[in-house]
Automatic annotation (TrEMBL):
Residues 83-102 are annotated as: Disordered. This is DUF4491 domain-containing protein. Residues 91-102 have a biased composition (Basic and acidic residues). Keywords: Membrane, Transmembrane, Transmembrane helix. The chain crosses the membrane at residues 6-25, 32-49. It comes from the Bacteria. InterPro entries: DUF4491.
């Protein structure tokens, strides 16, 4: 039964991180990646010190999902450049700044 609970939790957590990455890149750009690294470290520390196996497992999944989100932020930027996702017109990026200087 524990495996099923952890499996459902993993499915939900991974599903939640997808829109979080999209929104994070939209509003803050890939520069927010240190937040995901710090969150991942915190989740893993919490998992290490949590005695409940299910909660510890879910915290570990959240930690590694945070680390994976760093890669996804950079990939999301590429998807936006390809036009697969909308870009935030109010967000200043390095490319926008370079265009405005010319």
């Amino acid at each position: 039964m524990h495996g099923i609970i952890v499996g459902i939790g993993a499915f939900i957590l991974i599903g939640l991180f997808h829109p979080i990455v999209i929104k994070a890149e939209y509003y803050f750009s890939k520069k927010i990646f240190p937040f995901f690294i710090i969150a991942g470290i915190i989740f893993l520390i919490m998992a290490f010190f949590t005695e409940n196996k299910i909660v510890s497992s879910l915290l570990g999944i959240a930690g590694f999902s945070s680390f994976w989100s760093v890669l996804e932020l950079f990939e999301q930027e590429k998807r936006v450049e390809k036009g697969w996702f909308p870009s935030n017109p109010n967000k200043k990026t390095d490319k926008t700044d370079k265009r405005n200087k010319k």
